[in-house]
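User: quick one, fold this
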Amino acid sequence: MSRPDIAPFKAIRYNSQKVKLENVVSPPYDVISPALQNELYQKSPFNMVRIDYGKVQEGDQKGNDRYNRSQQSFTEWQNEQVLIRDETPSIYLYEQVYEAKVGDRKETRSRKGFYAAKNLQEFGKGNVLPHEKTLSGPKEDRFLLMQATSANLSPIFSLYMDREKKVAQLLAPFYETEPLYDFENGGIREKLWKLSDPAVISKVQEALADKKFFIADGHHRYETGINYRNSLKAQGDFSEDSSANYILMFFSEMSDPGLIILPTHRVVKNWPNFQAAGFVEKLKTAFDVLETGADSTKLTARLEYHGKSHLVLGIAFKNEWIILTTKPESIASLHPALQKVDTAILHQVILRQILGMKDEEERNPQHLSFVKDNALTLEALQHPETSFVVMLNCPQMDVLEEVAAAGLILPPKTTYFYPKILTGLLIHPIDPRRRVTD
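Assistant:
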């Protein structure tokens, strides 16, 4: 049987009669620090972090490790009806209402979209477009988890362009109905609806039939989905519409006013024989200096100011910061789309060419780490291992779209889409013997 590109499915989800949703959902694994992991463990014995990103324990070994504990918890919670399975194939509407800082004021914003099962396609061979380079470590971790649980626990976050707003118009009436879930989580109101009407689902499928889907968040999980599907296929073939050919995905329209992209800053650490003064002189051969200062608390505001008229990067040392903009000749070798992306310039020109950082060093957290919070990035300057930090402005959606359309790949952690979509809200079970809608 042929497979639909986007399909309804019977989600596994929390039983709201047994748990409080705000106590059991978690953020995606890649933003969970050890402190947050502990906090989530304390919230509930049924918090999804225990399955999706469980703790490593002393004495762990293959066959008796966190992946086995994930599988055991997943099975037990279903047996105890903490997790329940829907009986009807559905797509699931989702809305997040939150406060966003706009200039000097705050305003309430809403981001909408829907969850469904998405047909897995190799990058470059279908309608799914990546934009970031992936790392082997996270993919191995996610593969072992998927192998243990036979499920997608955390959705891929994708964006599509629908200028005529066909999908939004189809789904609009259902946002006015009583939601399945409605709860507060970390200052964000989370609302979920179940839509099971085959006629409406068919119209949504038709409206998206010719669309491209840009991965906003979840590159490692998507590639892992392909790897897991291929590993199952090696054990025995299955039908085109098997659940093994699909992955859990959240779909949001690119122009949704509730969509915000935040930057992810860089901390360079333990760089051999690093001297700030000599490094700055090398930077001046490839960049023009727009401003310098000593008070690091002013860097973020000044970077935002200069970013209105230039593509800029902020470099901060322990007692000084500088704001740089590129000299055209220094980025001439980059693809025109990459010349508009600060992380591409940072990694290629500053880290590779000027600093001499190699691939393996770029992947080593002892040399390069990624921090989303402005204050925490600047706090890193007080740590003795920090050589310097790089502050970045928010990426622009139209530039990211241009990069993806050109088939280009950006450095890891170029984007941080806010707010994050939750892990544990919906789970897509995988069984090669079952159709995606079964």
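User: anything notable?
Assistant: The domain at 264-393 is CATH 3.30.1760 (Conserved hypothetical protein from pyrococcus furiosus pfu- 392566-001, domain 2).
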